[in-house]
Specification:
The protein is about 55% helix and about 0% strand. By secondary structure, the protein is mostly helical. The protein has a domain of about 30 residues. The model has no long low-confidence stretch (mean pLDDT about 80).
């Protein structure tokens, strides 16, 4: 469920969330068996499933190692994608010039000892004035007066 489904505009849980939780819990209860033998069988199956899941890495060390490597790669890619999205949003979609670290020079300072403010790069439009003029303009309609 999304946070929107959990919280209303004021940050409180909405009644619809409670209705959904009640529905799904009710569905689970309805699907549980009523016979004691079937209940014991379902319980034993659930316990065995939890045990198998929790001991998976003990039984399949190679698969766990491959999964951990995959997860590490996935996290690195996700972090890169998030950084790229934040950079694109913060720059307004404009490409920033490559910043090459240069040593700080004393000559660039103003007489008061403060560094000069950076000037923003000139706009990098790729359209020429001929590209900006429309190629076709419809005919002027003449009235019969």
């Amino acid at each position: 469920m999304s946070l929107r489904a959990l919280h209303g505009k004021s940050g409180r849980r909405t009644p619809m969330f409670l209705i959904r939780v009640a529905f799904w819990l009710g569905l689970v209860v309805v699907l549980l068996p009523t016979d004691e033998r079937q209940q014991a069988r379902v319980y034993n199956t659930a316990v065995a499933t939890v045990e198998r899941v929790t001991t998976f890495c003990d039984r399949n060390a190679q698969a766990c190692t491959a999964g951990a490597d995959f997860w590490a790669t996935f996290v690195r890619k996700a972090e890169f994608g998030a950084r790229m999205a934040v950079d694109l949003i913060s720059s307004g979609g404009r490409k920033e010039p490559e910043v090459v670290p240069t040593p700080v020079r004393v000559e660039s300072e103003t007489p008061r000892g403060r560094p000069q403010p950076r000037t923003s790069p000139a706009p990098r439009g790729t359209l020429s004035p001929a590209d900006l003029t429309p190629a076709w303009r419809g005919q002027v309609q003449r009235t019969g007066t």
